[in-house]
Amino acid sequence: MNATRNRFVRSFAAVAVVLSAAFACAGEVPQLIPAPRKLVTGEGEFVCKGDVTDQAKFESDAAIPKEGYRLSVAKDGIKVVSYDDAGRFYALETLKQLAVKEGKDGVKVQCIEIEDSPRYSWRGFHLDECRHFFGKETVKSILDLMARYKLNRFHWHLTEDQGWRLDVPGYPELVKYGAVRPASPRHGTWPSSGSKEDAGKLNGVKYGPYYYTEADLKEIVAYAAERHIQVVPEIELPGHVYAALAAYPQFACRPENLAAREPRLVWGIEKDVLCLGNDEAIKFMENVVDWVCKVFPGDVVHIGGDECPQVRWQKCPKCQERIKKEGLGDHHGLQPWITRHFVKFLADRGKRAIGWDEYLLGDIPKSAIGMSWRESRSGAGHELVSGAAAATRGHDVVMTPCSYCYLDYGQGLGGDPFQYIGGRVTLERCYSFDPCAGVPEDAKAHILGGQGNNWTEYTWNEYDLAWKAWPRMLALSEVFWLGEAKPGFADFKKRAAAERSWLVRHGVNCAPVE
């Protein structure tokens, strides 16, 4: 992959301070995104040369909420008060948005008082790199934008039926077979055509091998940490593992189905999943997850758990023996069993498990975090576990329903040149999202926040990835930061239009604000 092709904004540290928020003038209300919780403008401006963030003086106050801050800009100086380093960081990101270029080297900032703190602790951006791979430079660009808009969780989808993107020590076959496809669906194949024949047409073009080394991953983790972003790796199990089974067919219930040693070439769900009666298959996944725990220092690891067909387990002698040995009743008991196993496995390593809502089926420890994406019984047909139901049971939940947060859904733009998987999620729809909607009052404390999901079956490069993510992630960033206190779509839309100008000037292929 050409790392420079269609590359959008890499680093804001060098340029954002003197170029950002050119629309903000003394006496006007600054056009910040996300909007701060409390803002009072004053008379006059602070003027300096060079990096305005170097002019800030810092104080600590234990009474300020986590990630919160007070920012004071006066004619004679800038003061930031925070409880933690994250609050200090976000105050400086706000300051960057406020800064206006003045002459050749000067910067001015309107005198202002801001008090700010986030409504939700989980403010996420998800990227699927299995269907299509974007690479280290694009990921860094995303992290830069996340920092600007105070997003703090990068959910990195790294394993799938269609691709495996991790070079795990001791398992070289994973990238030899799992990180490359001999073909993919044609770009012109539309899921809305209703034609299975069209959906199965392949382009005959080799894709890959694309994957990350351990050094790459650690570099990204460090880059994210500097921006107060935690990377949440996703290692899918027990379904969506076809690329891993292409590398190690012996871990499938029916190894003969993997004779071609290829990942799944078309989009969709694969019936061949991890054989849960095979101790070696489980040991393999334990070794992978154990390595992931060492590479990713955050306190959460995503273990998928979604869309897992159970048809192979019903006839697999090993799986049937596992059911009998563990007293699981029938094949329906296998997924809760493996979920409990890995929830404990992660807990023993100081981590919490998170997974899509299906993985909460059955008796699952309350330490397991749910990620609520479905609004009806869909996927592989598993019973729905809604975010409200999971929170009522005592699980912490990240809300990311597809009808509000799936950015591979159409934006409703006239003449949109890009392809989508289907659906319709407009900018206004994103902004209307309330993560606590329908959740009983006594369970709302379990709603950690939400995230926007960028699935990439129909996203081929950085250019259309940016178009689909922005400006809708601007809307979601304000939802996650302010919650019920957000000022309203009309107000947001004005600020988003101005911010889009900034994004476009900095090379981001941001869709129109409509």
Task: Give the SSE layout.
Elements: H1 16-19, E1 38-49, E2 56-60, E3 69-74, E4 77-82, H2 85-98, E5 100-102, E6 106-116, E7 122-128, H3 136-148, E8 153-157, H4 173-178, H5 196-199, H6 214-226, E9 230-237, H7 242-247, H8 279-295, E10 300-304, H9 311-315, H10 317-326, H11 334-347, E11 352-356, E12 369-372, H12 387-393, E13 397-399, H13 402-405, E14 409-410, E15 422-424, H14 427-431, E16 447-454, H15 462-469, H16 472-482, H17 489-505
Parallel strand pairs: 2-4, 7-8, 7-16, 8-9, 9-10, 10-11, 11-12, 12-13, 13-16, 14-15
Antiparallel strand pairs: 1-6, 3-4, 3-6, 5-6
Structural key phrases:
alpha/beta; globular; 514 residues; disordered N terminus; 17 helices; eight-stranded parallel barrel; TIM Barrel; Chitobiase, domain 2; 31% helix
Characterise this structure.
With 514 residues, this protein is of the alpha/beta class. The protein folds into 2 domains: 16-30 and 38-116, 2-Layer Sandwich (Chitobiase, domain 2), CATH 3.30.379; 122-505, TIM Barrel. 31% of the residues lie in helices and 18% in strands. The chain has 17 helices and 16 strands. The strands form 3 sheets. It has an 8-stranded parallel beta barrel with strand order 7-8-9-10-11-12-13-16, surrounded by 6 helices. Residues 1-27 have low confidence and may be disordered.
